[in-house]
Design a protein that fits this description.
Order of helices and strands: EHEEEEEEHEEE
Number of domains: 2
CATH superfamily of the largest domain: 2,3-Dihydroxybiphenyl 1,2-Dioxygenase, domain 1
CATH class of the largest domain: Alpha Beta
Number of strands: 10
CATH topology of the largest domain: 2,3-Dihydroxybiphenyl 1,2-Dioxygenase, domain 1
Distance between the termini: 19 Å
Structural class: alpha+beta
CATH architecture of the largest domain: Roll
Number of helices: 2
Amino acid sequence: MNAFHYAFKVKDIDTTRKFYVDILGCEEGRSTETWIDFNFFGNQLSAHVSENFPSLDYCGKVDGISVPIPHFGCVLTSDEFIRIQNKLEVAQIEFVVKPQKRYEGKLGEQLTMFVFDFSGNPLEFKAFSNPDEIFAV
């Protein structure tokens, strides 16, 4: 699978670095005073400082749970999911959607959790019980 690149807005570089490097453990890439790149689980995130943040919409209804749109995140292994969950808990990051299993016993069964970064960007982390079912219908 090819890596993706995603550029998004953040409030400042210092708190962005703290969340993505210190808490999540992402490797920092290039940066300036107004943007910073991260290796986000093999993908390139590019965080750009802005003062203009659109409102979130909780229009996403997934397995009976309203989720913030837009959001981004990463599909992890179950071990990686637990490791990231533990890091978020140790850092006392509040969960928007607490870690849970959705579609239990069904096609696409997965662990999922949502958090906000320090700029208010919603992130979802998930881990499929069967990785072959990521795109299954």
